[in-house]
Write a structure and sequence with these properties.
The chain is built from eleven helices and ten strands. Helix 1 links the parallel strand 2 and strand 3. Strands 1-2-3-5-7-10 form a six-stranded mixed sheet, with helices on both faces. A four-stranded mixed sheet has the order 4-6-8-9. The longest helix is centred in the N-terminal third of the chain and has 20 residues. The chain has two domains: 195 residues, Alpha-Beta Complex (2-enoyl-CoA Hydratase, Chain A, domain 1); 48 residues, Lyase 2-enoyl-coa Hydratase, Chain  A, domain 2, CATH 1.10.12.10. It has 260 residues and is an alpha/beta fold.
Length: 260
């Protein structure tokens, strides 16, 4: 539906998820966040979708939470309710068993930036601008920005972005590791889909376990994380996809993985 706040389009093995509130700069309404969470869960369960690409429009990925939904926030319980919806949507993307790629052009601010941080990989147009502006209005990032950003770029750079509330451009975002690559404006979605199609050729369980190993391992001491990694790897040795991968290697052909 064109009037839906989130659109889903299939590009072969890749599901393209588009934030669709251009008149509001893709502000994250509670309706949008709820729909995004449902879509991420459904695509995670859909064996025909190997990779998810999340994007906005050429002018804006998202400028953050919809202020109309914040108008009634007057007590702590209201704040918890609103931020909980955002947390749940981002968490659904982060734990989705498929690779999730953000294709970003234009403004990517505060909650929009935090949504992009919940994705596995970020591809940016050279027009993209990133920032967390909470300190300008007396708040603090509440959708993962104070936690995911320092894990990505280190605490010092994260604090500079949080303290200044000033945007950085795509080149700086690439330099400090916020994004994986920068492409000319208008090519960000195609570049993300091309990356997704490459990932889609690989064994789905391998990608899921690799994503899980990284995400969970970052919360553990190194020795525990290494043990966790071995446990995940051991499980894959018994799968049909591993047997198919070995056959394809010896037969010098592309493997036909089934996610089993």
């Amino acid at each position: 539906m064109a009037d839906s706040p989130v659109l889903v389009e299939r590009r072969g093995d890749v599901a393209l998820v588009t934030l669709n509130r251009p008149e509001k700069h893709n502000a994250l309404s509670l309706d949008l966040l709820g729909r995004l969470q449902t879509i991420a869960r459904e695509l995670g369960d859909d064996a025909t979708a190997r990779v998810i690409v999340v994007t906005g429009n050429p002018r804006c990925f998202s400028t953050g939470m919809d202020l109309d939904d914040l108008g009634d926030v007057k007590v702590i319980a209201d704040t918890q309710r609103v931020l909980g919806r955002a947390r749940d949507a981002n968490a659904e993307l982060e734990r989705c068993p498929k690779p999730v790629i953000a294709a970003i052009a234009g403004w990517c601010l505060t909650g929009g930036f935090e949504l992009a941080l919940a994705c596995d990989i970020r591809v940016a147009a050279d027009t993209a601008r990133f920032g967390i502006t909470s300190a300008r209005i007396g708040t603090v990032a509440g959708m993962g920005g104070t936690q995911r950003l320092p894990r990505l770029v280190g605490p010092g750079r994260a604090k500079e972005i949080l303290f200044s509330a000033e945007p950085i451009d795509a080149a700086e975002a690439l330099r400090i590791g916020v994004v994986n690559r920068v492409v000319p404006a208008g090519q960000e979605v195609d570049a993300a889909i091309a990356m997704g199609r490459l990932f889609a050729k690989r064994a789905p369980l391998s990608l899921w376990f690799a994503k899980t190993a990284v995400n969970v391992g970052l919360t553990m001491p190194l020795e525990a994380a290494l043990a966790y990694e071995i446990g995940l790897t051991t499980q894959l040795f018994t799968t049909e996809d591993r047997a198919e991968g070995l056959r394809a290697f010896h037969e010098k052909r592309d493997a036909k993985f089934q996610g089993r």
